[in-house]
Design brief:
The chain has helices spanning 19-26, 32-35, 43-52, 57-60, 106-121, 136-144, and strands spanning 9-12, 63-69, 75-85, 90-97, 126-132, 148-159, 162-172. With 178 residues, the chain is of the alpha+beta class. The chain has a seven-stranded mixed sheet.
Length: 178
């Protein structure tokens, strides 16, 4: 468990008690373009999702962990590995920190723990993230965690202002044998 915890945050599996937080976050329309959500999720569907989350990343091709602040125990966000591809040893990486807790360093600590887990335990070769070009805070966060921009997807997402480009950011693990 020490691999998923430092003095600031702890990454943990989903629990039934997380249902209302997931319901709130997944049904926030301002976040839908970031996560490709097109419609609200019901509590029933989210409850089923939580019940199935015990399956391995090899079965689900996804791993979602909740981010808890060590100082208070509050759940401040979640971090995901998605589109897990064991053959090519890669996965997408996403993070959400509740707006109430942003700006406190939780995101960088959670991402660094997930990077360590993905590279050291899962033996992934690379992680990637899709970042809307206007999302300066995410670009800064991922850059601070060692990601570099490797491409631009033109008119990739639909926004209220029209179509927007998305950056592809990658982090290649220098020595996957470690």
């Amino acid at each position: 468990m020490a691999q998923l915890e430092n003095e600031f945050v702890r990454l943990r599996a989903l629990e039934p008690e997380d249902l209302e937080l997931l319901y709130h976050w997944e049904n926030n329309p301002s976040l839908w373009n970031i996560g490709n959500t097109l419609s609200p999720y019901s509590r029933y569907i989210l409850k089923k999702y939580i019940m199935e989350s015990h399956h391995s990343i090899y079965e689900l091709k996804q791993l979602r962990l909740m981010v808890d602040a060590c100082s208070t125990g509050a759940t401040v966000g979640m971090v995901d590995l998605y589109d897990f591809d064991p053959h090519h040893a890669r996965a997408g990486l996403g993070i959400l920190v509740d707006p109430l807790y942003q700006g406190n360093g939780f995101a960088i600590h959670a991402l660094n723990l997930m990077l360590d887990y993905a590279f050291s335990f899962l033996k992934l070769h690379q992680l990637y993230a899709y970042i809307p070009v206007k999302n300066e805070s995410s670009k800064t966060l991922f850059t601070r965690c060692g990601f570099t921009v490797t491409g631009i997807l033109t008119d990739w997402i639909s926004t209220v202002d029209g179509y927007s480009d998305v950056l592809v950011m990658q982090r290649i693990h220098a020595n996957p044998k470690e």
